[in-house]
Amino acid sequence: MLEVHDLQVAYGQAPALWGVSFTLRARELLCVVGPNGAGKTTLINALAGVLRSRGGRIVLEGRDITALPPHRFCEAGLVIVPEGRRLFGSMSVLENLEIGSLLAAAKAKRSESIEQVLALFPALKPKLAQAAGELSGGQQQMVAIGRALMARPRILLLDEPSLGLSPLIVQEMFAAIRRVNEEAGTAVLLVEQNVATALRVAHRAYVLEEGRMVAEGTPDELMSRDEIRRAYLGV
Fold first, then answer.
1. Contact, 177 vs 145, CB < 8 A?
2. Which residues are registered as beta bridge partners of 92?
3. pLDDT at position 232
4. Can you tell me the distance from the alpha carbon of 105 to that of 222, in angstroms, rounded to the nearest whole number?
5. CA distance 192 to 198
6. SS3 82
7. Which residues contact 5 (CB under 8 A, 6 or more apart)?
8. How far apart are CA 161 and CA 122, in angstroms?
9. 215 pLDDT more than 80
10. In terms of DSSP H, where are the helices of the chain?
């Protein structure tokens, strides 16, 4: 579904990604894990069109979208839930959700999408009129994911969704992400520092380190490799 070939991204003269290549299959939940500074956020921002690549190709179902203007990536079906959520804090939860459905195709199904988001995150239903900035961190992450789903994405890009959340809320969040993948059939690319939790929900995984892909496989395959367990799981 999504093919990334030899992707290279730099900040000025400082390279951040070096020849990154991987595939995301239809209806797959794929995670990219790695330590802080590995390039995970850079990767997901490049895939969302937020950062321009210096080299390589991003191909969606046979169409090279590498050179698309940034605002066309969402139209193509790649929608990001950014690190830190980035909600409009003074606007209501409902207004934040509606912002996600501004494209014509998504706007036509706005009511249906709202119902789907509230079914996924019922805790948001009594909060629709409340300012998003007044919510707990976990509820804000629900709004951020819901806003992305309002665009009716073909691929949902998630950047560190567990960041700053309690362990219990993290488990609930990852269960919701799995439901989006399984029930809606939405392909999910998850970048995450919480390796153990990410591997529990993923179909396949890649390990990113210092801007390069250094390992790939199923969660069981990666967990069976001593060097991966030592480096990323502390065991």
1. yes
2. 131
3. 65
4. 39
5. 7
6. coil
7. 21, 56, 57, 59
8. 18
9. yes
10. 40-47, 70-76, 93-99, 104-107, 110-120, 137-150, 167-184, 195-201, 219-223, 226-228
What is the pTM assigned to this prediction?
Answer: 0.92
> Which structure tokens are listed for 3?
């093919």
Count of other CB atoms within 10 angstroms of residue 136:
13
Query: Would strands 55-60 and 63-64 be described as parallel, antiparallel, or unpaired?
Result: antiparallel
Helix axes 137-150, 167-184, angle to 10 degrees: 20
Q: Tokens for 204?
A: 């396949």
Closest CA to 51 of 36, 64, 40: 40
Half-sphere exposure of 120 (CA within 13 A, CB side): 29
DSSP 134: G
Q: Can you tell me the distance from the alpha carbon of 161 to that of 191, in angstroms, rounded to the nearest whole number?
A: 8
> Which one, of 199, 235, 190, 193, lies nearest residue 217 by Cα?
199
Q: Strand 187-192 and strand 29-33: pairing?
A: parallel
Interval 132-159: pLDDT, tens:
999 999 999 999 999 999 999 999 999 9
- Cα gap 174→202, rounded to integer Å: 10
* pLDDT, tens digit (0-9, with 9 covering 90-100), for 182-199: 988 999 999 988 888 889
222: left (phi over 0), alpha (psi -120 to 50) or beta: alpha
With both helix axes pointing from N to C terminus, report the angle between 110-120 and 137-150 in degrees, rounded to the nearest 10: 150
Burial of 128 (0-12, 13-18, 19+ CB in 10 A): middle
Q: Which residue has the tokens 């488990």?
A: 171
- Token pair belonging to 50: 């937020």
Structure tokens at 219: 């969660």
